[in-house]
Amino acid sequence: MPEGHSVHRIARQFDHNFVGKTVRASSPQGRFAEGAAVLDGREVVSVKAVGKQMFLEADGDVWLRVHLGLYGAWDFAGEILLDPTIASANGRMGQTNQRGTDPDAAIFDDAGENSLASIGAPRRARVHVRMSEQTKGLEDDGSEWPPPVVGQVRLRLMTDVTAADLRGPTACVLQTPDEMLATVAKLGPDPLVGDPAENEERFVSAVRRKGTSIALLLMDQSVVAGIGNVYRAEMLYRARLNPHTPGKAVPEEVVRELWRDWARLLPIGVETGQMMTMDGLSPDAHRAAMASRDDRHWVYHRAGLPCRVCGTQIVLEEVGARNLYWCPKCQA
């Protein structure tokens, strides 16, 4: 499932390519035909991400809410104005597939994930981009316009030069402004949305009053928005915190540091498309980490391997129906 950095990257590309423009909307799959008919011919007013959900505003007080879930993806094609605040990529953009831009500048990794490349002024490129955690099954080279419909496309949004196809989302619904605000109100704080001090206090208060394990609380989107399996494991290790500790038993200063760590890591993920969680790397080690997930994380996906600090075997267990990786010595 895309974590928070992915959705913020997607929202920023929508902001650069769709906001202020009239869109044609359709549902090639047919499952969102009525909603597409409402969006068709409207101007996109704004777009924002909160945690793992994106909200696109169209004129006439219409909001499109999209939650990609485990299998959802946005596929972009055509003339795309790249966001200067995030790295362009060949591979995955959080995780996103982008072909045709600066191939020599990219650092490819062995899992096909997005690579860190030069960040400069906005530029236009004829590309085909996938924005999700999945890249398989997309073969079009982006040269045909309008692009052919590939697979089960729930919603297609098009300007004169750019197309965005949504496939496989958990949620794709239209909302009124009040419904949108009610949805956002149910989400926990996002470091990139709202007042930083208020966000920290909301997080601390939510964690400190619950007896639920901190491992479950970090994945609870009503407690904190945007954290998924990778960031959860890495943040708990970075805090040297036992994942089974009840929230109310975690010292307040540790809870605050967890929040501040999330506020540090999320912008890095948005900028690079990588869930980079290791600090203090040499230039060579950093490049290796950007090229390989195996060199990028402290514990995630390292079950049975020695802890990078103490040498103890990393444990894998299921918590909340998701895999959790942790070091039983460093996080005792």
Automatic annotation (TrEMBL):
GO molecular function terms noted in the UniProt entry: class I DNA-(apurinic or apyrimidinic site) endonuclease activity; damaged DNA binding; oxidized pyrimidine nucleobase lesion DNA N-glycosylase activity; zinc ion binding
Q: Which cofactors, by name?
A: Zn(2+)
Q: Which reaction does it catalyse?
A: 2'-deoxyribonucleotide-(2'-deoxyribose 5'-phosphate)-2'-deoxyribonucleotide-DNA = a 3'-end 2'-deoxyribonucleotide-(2,3-dehydro-2,3-deoxyribose 5'-phosphate)-DNA + a 5'-end 5'-phospho-2'-deoxyribonucleoside-DNA + H(+)
Gene3D superfamilies recorded for this chain?
1.10.8.50, MutM-like, N-terminal
Q: Which residues form the Formamidopyrimidine-DNA glycosylase catalytic domain?
A: 2-100
Q: Which UniProt keywords apply?
A: DNA damage, DNA repair, DNA-binding, Endonuclease, Glycosidase, Hydrolase, Lyase, Metal-binding, Multifunctional enzyme, Nuclease, Zinc, Zinc-finger
A Pfam family for this UniProt protein?
Answer: H2TH
Documented EC number(s) = 4.2.99.18
Domain FPG-type positions:
298-332
Name one process (GO BP) from the record. base-excision repair
- Known SMART domains for this protein? Fapy_DNA_glyco, H2TH
Q: Identify its protein family.
A: Belongs to the FPG family.
What name does this protein carry? DNA-(apurinic or apyrimidinic site) lyase
- Organism annotation: Microbacterium ginsengiterrae
